[in-house]
Amino acid sequence: MKRTRNLVLAAASAALVLSGCGSDSGDDGGSEGGEGKIGVILPDTASSVRWESADRPALESAFDEAGVEYEIQNAEGDADQMATIADGMVADGVTVLAIVNLDSDSGAAIQEKAGQQGVRTIDYDRLTLGGSADYYVSFDNTVVGELQGEGLAQCLGEDEADVIYLNGAPTDNNATLFSEGAHSVLDEGPYENAGEQAVPDWDNEQAVTIFEQLYTQADGQVDGVYAANDGLAGSVISILEKNGRAGEVPVTGQDATVEGLQNILAGDQCMTVYKSAKLEAGALAETAIALVNGEDAETNGTTEDVDGDREVPSVLLDPESITQDNVKTVVDDGGVTAEDLCDGEFAEMCEEAGIS
Ligand code: BGC
User: Bridge partners of 74?
Assistant: First the structure.
């Protein structure tokens, strides 16, 4: 399939050269022979520490290892800024642009403009609804939500329980999938929904206020909390602590951050989801390099873009559930360092968990 497509492309460009009416794309457009440049725009530094602490270094080593030219920037939570960075990258000779959108509309506009200038685009981690990305590289985000739901159910046990749901940003398609996945599990159990709200921009500070309100509205009748990522879990735990209930009410998370894993070791967080940045960045690098070389990329499925009414060719990786029993696997895999995780008061807990 891939081979056929390449042959067709080669034949098409040969025909253009022969007929003497080719566009620039043959010799100097950078779409052949690996002469292009890859641009990646990360979303922010506040919705999760992952983007700068895990994704950036993993992307840098994947690109360095492949010996390709690249540029990585962070939009700092500002969609206009992301559009400006994209323009700058294209002006700078980027031929493949990967973005983690801040919302689907701004992401789609960036992709459309880049596409008009002959740049191939990739959705990294978040699908841009109504966008035009050639590929989507992510984890199976519904499974992420299912793992969160299963983890919370395991921590809650078989008894009836009241659960509050703190979802991620309403503008992030992933947050929708996480929540759907979690509900698909928890709605089947003996659990009541005691309140549910999405947190704009995954903002950890707003999450504190939102959760405190939900907690008060529920009169403190809360047995478990679905928090969509480790940052939001931290916000929830701070309010549970204030009410003397940290450690008693299980809380979910995601990203296997140092803070999340420490909360798990301390018994304040029930679980997190590990999504290896090395795997995701590696998959992005492979996809982008194929595009730079004018080839099709390897995929393992498609993802439905419900707004654009199309199936986006995708690389979807497997997320892993982490509880107190297997925190060590994240360290062993290089997701966090033992040095960062086992700092200060956590040294003893690490020792007990067999982490050194
Ligand atoms: C990512 C999560 C991350 C969240 C906030 C989601 O799209 O998949 O890993 O925690 O955004 O940045």
Answer: 42
Minimum-distance ligand 1 atom for the alpha carbon of 100 = 7
Per CATH, the architecture of 141-274+323-352 is what?
3-Layer(aba) Sandwich (3.40)
- What type of residue is 36? G
State the Cα–Cα distance between residues 77 and 121, nearest whole angstrom: 20
Distance 48 CA to ligand 1 centre (A): 6
**Taking each helix axis from N to C terminus, what angle separates 104-116 and 79-91, rounded to the nearest 10 degrees?**
20
Rounded to an integer, what distance in angstroms lies between the CA atom of residue 116 and that of residue 94?
13
| Ligand 1 atom 6 nearest Cα | 174
Residue of 74, 124, 229, 235 to mutate, ligand 1, most atoms within 8 A of C-beta: 229
Tell me whether domains 2-133+276-318 and 141-274+323-352 share a fold: yes
Residue 198: strand pairing partners? 167
pLDDT tens digits, one per residue of 110-156? 999 999 999 999 999 999 999 999 999 999 999 999 999 999 999 99
- Do residues 202 and 231 touch, judged by C-beta distance below 8 A? yes
**Is pLDDT above 60 for 323?**
yes
Given the candidates 3.40.50.2000, 3.20.20.70, 3.40.50.2300, 3.40.1390.30, the CATH classification of the domain at 2-133+276-318 is: 3.40.50.2300
What is d(CA 116, CA 90) in angstroms, rounded to the nearest whole number? 11
Q: pLDDT tens digit string along 21-49?
A: 323 333 333 333 457 999 999 999 999 99
